[in-house]
Amino acid sequence: MTRLRNKKIPLVTSLIGAATLMAAAPAQACYTVHFDNKSTKDMHTVWAAFGCAGIEHWITSACEDKLVKAGESRSYDFNWGTTRPSVLVIQDLDMDDKPVAKVDYGLSGGKFEITNGSRKIHAESASGCGKSYTIKFTENDRIEWLD
């Protein structure tokens, strides 16, 4: 009986170590999405993905919410394990902090594209860690999609 107990200890220790590593993995940054606001207006920007637990602006999968001033850029590092990333760009909010004018970008074909008004569902996830994506939001984009 004593021998069996002694043999179980390394197994239990190994299982605890593996569980600790698995729990720590989602906290690591995996891929980055840059938002470059080249428009003349400040934009509320929400980075979202399945696997994020925040609730911002009625979005249950919000990861981060930032005001990106005109001519500035911000980035968000999505954690390992997040899928189907999107970036919501909001020009105006109503009294309840809900968007009045917004445009949604989703990952499609290895790059972020505007998905507003299309039937395309941005179901794509990043192809792996270490990737970096950039959204260049221009004044023409703002006029076309938000004015």
How would you describe what is shown here?
By secondary structure, this protein is an alpha+beta fold. Helix content is 21%, strand content 48%. The protein has two helices and nine strands, in the order αβββββββββα. The chain has helices at residues 2-24, 139-146; strands at residues 29-38, 43-50, 54-56, 59-68, 73-79, 83-93, 99-108, 111-114, 132-138. β6 and β7 (99-108) form a beta hairpin. The termini are far apart. Mean pLDDT is 78; it is low at 8-26.
Cα radius of gyration in angstroms: 20 Å
Helical fraction: 10-25%
SSE class: alpha+beta
Q: What's the pLDDT, averaged over the residues?
A: 78
Tally of individual helices: 2
Element order: H for helix, E for strand: HEEEEEEEEEH
Major sheet attributes: 6 strands, antiparallel
Low-confidence stretches: 8-26
Strand order of the largest sheet: 3-4-2-6-7-8
How many beta-strand segments?
9
Described by the principal axes of the CA atoms, the overall outline is globular
Share in β-strands:
over 45%
In whole angstroms, how far apart are the ends?
77 Å
State the main characteristics.
single chain; 6-stranded antiparallel β-sheet; 3-stranded mixed β-sheet; alpha+beta; globular; 147 residues; 9 strands
